[in-house]
């Protein structure tokens, strides 16, 4: 945090990244639990997988912003 008590853009992105990673992990666990039941609703699983993919894309964008590739 800077002197005014506000978070820098990097700090905000880091917090957002952690939240998204947690959501991604939670969705993964939910998908596995539904698949293990054997009688899972395929539409629900498909929706959860789409959500998971969307979150993964957001994670990638934030990581690219926080840790840009340096080409020597």
CA-based gyration radius: 17 Å
Task: Work out the strand percent.
Answer: under 5%
Tally of DSSP helical segments: 2
Proportion of residues in helical segments: over 70%
Low-confidence stretches are: none
H/E element sequence: HH
Which descriptor suits the 3D outline? elongated
What features would you describe in this structure?
The chain has 72 residues and is mainly α. The protein has 2 helices and no strands. Helix 1 runs antiparallel to helix 2 (42-66). The longest helix is centred in the N-terminal third of the chain and has 29 residues, at 9-37. The chain is elongated and about 55 Å long. The two termini are 31 Å apart. The mean pLDDT is 91.
Keywords:
mainly alpha; 2 helices; 72 residues
Briefly summarize what is shown.
Helix content is 75%, strand content 0%.
SSE topology:
Blueprint: H1 9-37, H2 42-66
Helix pairs in contact: 1-2
């Amino acid at each position: 945090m800077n002197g005014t008590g506000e978070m820098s853009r990097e700090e905000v992105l880091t917090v957002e990244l952690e939240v998204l990673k947690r959501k991604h992990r939670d969705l993964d666990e939910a998908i596995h639990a539904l698949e293990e039941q054997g009688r899972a609703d395929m539409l629900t699983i498909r929706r959860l997988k789409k959500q998971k993919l969307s979150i993964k894309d957001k994670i990638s964008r934030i990581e690219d912003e926080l840790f840009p590739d340096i080409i020597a």
